Amino acid sequence: QVQLVESGGGLVQAGGSLRLSCAVSGRSLSFYAMGWFRQAPGKEREFLAVIKWSGSSTYYEDSVKGRFIISKDNARATVYLQLNSLSPEDTAVYYCAANRDRWTLYTTADEYDYWGQGTQVTVSS
Questions:
Q1: Within 10 A of 27 (CB to CB), how many other CB atoms are there?
Q2: Cα 32 from Cα 51, distance rounded (Å)
Q3: Long-range contacts for 52-57 (Cβ within 8 Å, ≥24 apart)?
Q4: pLDDT by residue (tens digit) across 68-98?
C-alpha cells in the first residue's frame, strides 16, 4: 500500500516552467513504477511519463518528449515532473500514480493501482 501527494501546480504564463512533485509513502518502493498523467476538462486522462524506482528506466508520451522530464529522488521518496515551454493546451489537473508491476512501463491509466489527489496547472496566454 502506498500514498501519493502531488504539489507544485499553479498559474504560469505561456512559455514558462513548473516542477511538480509527488511525495510517496509506503514500503518496498522498488517494486513500483511511477507515472504522471493529466486530465483537462472534457478530455480523457492522458499518459505523460513513467519511471521505475529501480534503474531509472523512463518512457515518455511522444507529444511531450523533449519538453517534460520525469525524475526521482530515492532517498527522499519523491518523483518529479519538470514542465517546460508550457502552452495553454497544457492546462489540466496533473496526477501522480503508482503501478505495482515493477517490470513494465505501462502507459494506460487503468493499469495503475494508486493515485494522488492531483494538482492543477493553468497556463495563461
A1: 7
A2: 9
A3: 52/102, 52/105, 53/29, 53/102, 54/30, 54/102, 57/105
A4: 999 999 889 999 999 999 999 999 999 999 9
